[in-house]
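Hi V.,

You were right to ask for the full record rather than a summary. Here it is.
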Amino acid sequence: MKRLTPILIALAVFSVACGGDDSPTSPSPPTTVRFTAQLLPSNEVPAVLNADASASGTSTITLNLTRDSGGAITAATVDITTTVTGFVAGTTVTAAHIHRAAAGTNAGVLLGQFGAGELTLTNGAGTITRTGLTMPVTDAQGMIDNPAGHYFNVHTQLNLGGAIRGQLTRQ
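Predicted structure:
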């Protein structure tokens, strides 16, 4: 019996240590999701070959999500910062948008960062930031599920259909 006592004590301690909740804890879904897009004239459809062909840029898109207790998105706002360079001095950016379409295809606007005449590139470069833009929940979920199926582009007076473009990449 003396030999059995240490074994029984060890088993009792082990069973207490192993007891408890065996259900895995899953992490909470994120309330912030960030995407970037590297903007180039060669990504436009068709590719830009005129004076805007030397331009480039980066856009950072942040989804700010409200979720219910089950993790479903109930509201979404978007913050967008876009920096561009390489344009001809004095270029007026006419718009900047998120679109839902894969590389090589064009689509209508999903969400605009800004509209006509809000950014003049005095020295051919500039940055614009917009925060708190409202996005429908289904569009936010679509961007999370398929970032590469969305693109961001910047339009100019010279290229009203888009001067520089990049597909979204989740960070």
